[in-house]
Amino acid sequence: MTTGNSDTIAAIATARGNAGIGIIRLSGPAVCDIQRQLFAGKLEPRKATLVKIYDQQQRLIDRVLLIFFPAPNSFTGEDVLEVQGHGGMVLQDMLLEHILSLGCRQARAGEFSERAFLNGKIDLSQAEAIADLIEGQTRSAVRGAMRSLQGDFSKEIYALLEGLIHLRMLAEACLDFPDEEIDELPVKEVEQRLLSVQEKIKPLLRFARNGSLLRDGFHLVLVGRPNAGKSSLLNVLTKNDTAIVSEQPGTTRDIIRDRIDLDGIVIDISDTAGLRQASDTIESEGIRRTKNELESADRVLLIIDEADYSEASRNALMSYLEHDIPVTIIRNKIDLQNREPEIKYRERWVEILLSIKSGAGLDLLYRHLKEITSSDTLSEGVYTARRRHVEALQKADVSLQDAGRHISASVQLELFAEDCRRAQNSLNEITGEFGSEDLLGKIFSSFCIGK
User: From 1.25.60.10, 3.30.950.10, 2.10.10.90, 1.20.120.430, which CATH number describes the 132-214+386-432 domain?
Assistant: First the structure.
């Protein structure tokens, strides 16, 4: 498909700031006309040509390299022109202003990638991988984004879709032509094919969860009573004096955030206000923000002073937490109680006995953090994914489970066909073949200008 865009867009494609080289990219139907206004000669496709660019008063703006990529063999699928000049910010702005005056408009954020998607050059997950590649904060995230951009994730999705399409074909043939000479639904074959799709989606969902972890990071929230050691732990984990440490209760009033890279996984750490009966309106607001922060937590580190630890004190603090939030209880200051470092695995939480001040038991905490943020699939083979990909795969998985019940217990053909259709639509949301305009707008608006 093609975009049908009648306008031509242009934008600076390199980052803002002075540099040796700056690139302006153009795409659209007027590219050839604009190129002739910049340079009267003919450009050979994909070969750099050195030219001088003059403004309307015939004053030299810059000496640049022009590279022409004719449609459909370009990034966007349209005629594309790259103007590579010197990288001064003022110079780039002057050059872009002149180019825009020749018959094109400033591109929106992500509009080049959007046109590549709409013209069938890439699917939606590959388009998102472009942004992930640019924004990657660790080597693992960058390598994962490159695998997604190359289409590894998309190939897995298309393989699932192929299996689903075949299942729908078998079911809907019987539904659409009940009076024709069509055999009854081959239940055994359908069950085997359905099982094959289900077996493929399970590891893909696991890969997507890990890919989402690579991209979005892991959100760790530190909570506890005042003076339990939250701010000290934040400083130890980040190796920075990020938070003010004081024996005065209630020092932390707002959310303090920092991040660490733990074996290729970005961990966003939030230090929160101490949980207690607030003494003033400012502290009350801090506690309210703590509760809001917990809503986005992947895991909570609940820090308790070992001298105050009891079943009652633990349960009182746990009451602040949602039941389904994974919790690790840090029993701090064991050096003052002559306790040894230890890690205990409970049914609903993990307990680690340590001393932040002396460092005893911190190795147990680091080992635990690696356990909860990584797995054997977080390796060179992982591609980045987004939370929406995980949610789409989860919906598809649920639909496939429903399909299995409708085909095995009693052959309810209409319901089975509908389950397969819903699973297919969920997977199509990942590649962009099925989705709302609002979703596309939200995705591409998060890109940088020039991509």
Answer: 1.20.120.430
Residue 409 tokens, joined: 């217990």
Task: Please state the domain extents for the chain.
Answer: 9-123, 132-214+386-432, 217-373
For 103-137, the pLDDT digits (tens) are 999 999 999 999 999 999 998 889 888 888 887 77
What is the DSSP secondary structure assignment for residue 144, as one 8-state letter?
H
Name the token pair of 235. Answer: 């400083």
Asked whether 158 and 433 are in contact (CB, 8 A), the reply is no
Residues 351/344, Cβ–Cβ less than 8 Å: yes
Q: Which residues pair with 66 in a beta bridge?
A: 49, 83
- pLDDT beyond 90 at 444: no
Q: Is 103 exposed, middle or buried (0-12, 13-18, 19+ CB in 10 A)?
A: middle
How far, in Å, CA of 277 to CA of 162, rounded? 58
Question: What's the rounded Cα separation, in Å, for the pair 29 and 240?
Answer: 53
DSSP secondary structure string for all residues of 228-293:
SSHHHHHHHHHTS--S---SSTT---S-EEEEEEETTEEEEEEE----S--SSHHHHHHHHHHHHH
CA atoms of 357 and 369, how far apart (whole Å): 19
- Nearest-10 crossing angle of helices 111-118, 437-445: 140
pTM beyond 0.70, yes or no: no
Band of pLDDT at residue 149, cut at 50, 70 and 90? confident
CATH code, residues 9-123: 3.30.1360.120
Residue 140, both tokens: 């693992």
Contact between 269 and 260 under an 8 Å Cβ cutoff? The reply is yes
Q: What is the distance between the alpha carbons of residues 272 and 185, in angstroms, rounded to a whole number? A: 59
Q: Give the pLDDT confidence of 231-248 residue by residue, as tens digits.
A: 899 999 988 876 555 455
At the top level of CATH, the class of 217-373 is alpha beta
pLDDT digits (tens, 9 = 90+) for 297-352: 888 999 999 999 999 989 888 887 876 788 999 999 999 999 999 999 998 899 99
